[in-house]
């Protein structure tokens, strides 16, 4: 994997891409969740790098893509289009975990032609009807509520909430380790409340697959996925023995499901 970066006025955005890049192969673009980074997908890189082109990033304001000023989902989608243009990528299969699913839908909202397929992993949908007034209110409280816990307790609670296995738990702690409390709480705020500013009723024309850890305890992710599949008819695969970070908790099932969807659907 080759490390690269996109230079923007707000800050540099780091990404990793297969080297050499083979234009005859499909490209898989992995997008991590809020407060995470590209290391979340190590099990997927190991599985897919021989057969597909791989693209990962540290989303703006996350991981190595810091400092970054004024994150928005619109800016994130514009940055992805610029990364695709720089690398002559016309289309990719987007695998968006949690917030990465929001970013993917922000891209579909603006540049649907570059999304060949969309795999939403422990994520939630764009669409006004999914979120009650109460949901919207509490999403807007995430940032200040994070400040109520001591830093060490906050990080441990976040890791415990998203992971079922020791490996996933330690990976989450590692991803969180670079942030101070102010930055961490702000990221949670812009990740969740910021999504509301870009949310809209969205028609997705490419093939879509939903995946959900059977023990996902993050917010109302389970509830939203049930509504999402019921409303749209998208196939929902429940990953056993996995929490919110199911790509790390149960990579064998996740990877096999991804392969099946890429090769046999749409």
From TrEMBL:
Residues 28-256 form the AB hydrolase-1 domain. Pfam families: Abhydrolase_6. This is Pimeloyl-ACP methyl ester carboxylesterase. One of its GO terms (molecular function) is hydrolase activity. GO terms for cellular component: membrane. It comes from the Bacteria. Keywords: Hydrolase. SUPFAM superfamilies: alpha/beta-Hydrolases. PANTHER family: AB HYDROLASE SUPERFAMILY PROTEIN YCLE (PTHR43798:SF31), MONOACYLGLYCEROL LIPASE (PTHR43798).
């Amino acid at each position: 994997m080759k490390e690269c970066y996109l230079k923007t006025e707000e800050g540099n955005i780091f990404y990793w891409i297969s080297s050499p890049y083979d234009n005859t192969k499909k490209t898989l673009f992995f997008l991590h969740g809020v407060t995470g980074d590209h290391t979340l997908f190590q099990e997927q890189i190991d599985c897919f790098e021989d057969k597909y082109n791989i693209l990962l990033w540290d989303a703006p304001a996350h991981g190595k893509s810091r400092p970054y000023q004024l994150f928005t989902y619109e800016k994130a989608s514009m940055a992805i289009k610029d990364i695709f243009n720089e690398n002559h990528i016309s289309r990719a299969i987007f695998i968006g975990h949690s917030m990465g699913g929001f970013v993917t839908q922000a891209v579909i909202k603006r540049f649907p032609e570059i999304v060949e397929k969309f795999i939403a992993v422990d994520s939630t949908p764009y669409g006004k009807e999914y979120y009650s007034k109460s949901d919207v209110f509490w999403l807007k409280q995430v940032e200040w509520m994070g400040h109520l816990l001591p830093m060490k307790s906050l990080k441990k609670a976040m890791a415990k909430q998203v992971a079922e296995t020791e490996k996933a738990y330690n990976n989450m702690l590692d991803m969180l380790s670079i942030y101070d409390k102010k930055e961490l709480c702000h990221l949670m705020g812009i990740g969740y409340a910021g999504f509301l500013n870009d949310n809209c009723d969205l028609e997705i024309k490419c093939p879509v697959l939903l995946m959900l850890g059977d023990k996902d305890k993050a917010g109302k992710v389970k509830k939203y996925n049930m509504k999402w599949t019921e409303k749209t008819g998208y196939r929902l695969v429940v990953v056993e023995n996995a929490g919110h970070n199911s790509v790390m908790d149960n990579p064998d099932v996740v990877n096999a499901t991804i392969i099946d969807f890429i090769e046999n659907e749409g």
